Amino acid sequence: MKSTEFYFLVLLLTASVTIVSTLMCYDCPLHHYDFLITPDNIPNFMNCTTIDTKQNFCSLNFYSDDNGKTSKLRANPNKGDEHASVSYISAGFDVPRGFDNTISFGLLYQCMTDNCNNPQMILKRILEASTIETYKPPQLSSATDLSSRAEPLTCFTYNNFTNSDECKPLFHNRQSSNAAEVCSTYCVTEIHIDSIDLKTERMCSYCEQDTKERFSYIDERVYLLDQRISRLQQLEYICNTSRDCNSLENIRQIQQRYRIEFDFDKFFKNSGTSMLILSVRMQYIGYFLFIIVIWLNNKY
Question: Which stretch is the leader sequence (predicted)?
Fold first, then answer.
């Protein structure tokens, strides 16, 4: 093979690999807005650039941490969840500990096509498809209130994590769903999606002795865009207001008081142009590789 032909072949193969392995993403620095962004008041996003990256996802992060009085937005490439291999949206809210009545909520869009996180193009569709109605469960009782109770606080205890060390404190032989534990601080229940199958809910309930600051309630859902299915990504509840307040039954009652929803049909209704661009791009890649194969067959 002549050196010029070899060089041409290397260029072709390098170009095809580059097309597949890199991703163009918008990079917009974190910006604060003194109003809540809605589908009807999408601002003009400034100081955004595009980056050629080898990260897995283009990301768009929108949230408000003061009951919806203001909003924040950031766009950038990132690695994403270790096991995630499809585009998705996560949505949820959290309630910090304390008595300032503050609730934070937000949306995270993770996508895998060039410039798919352009906020000017995609944020309106995300907001139109999303519903987050929050609720603040009863606040924690003080140590004085706990000591004056007629009966001691008991916590619902349970663990079905495959690795018992993931449920803190260590549970040893505590596996029963009807076990109860007297507690002088507060009760905790944590629910997470299994990191391997991304389907099974792993639950850990216990009495927490560490009184460090943490959120009193978190509910976050994930919406897989390719399959149009939703999963509970994580839920955490800290309480000491009543007997077995951290039980799954009580949590289900709390969940009935708020809504976290995502409408796939609304999200995809205006995506025809984007899908067409992606289809043309994939056809171009296929045609490009086909030409290489024909050229090699004719040459050898």
Answer: 1-22
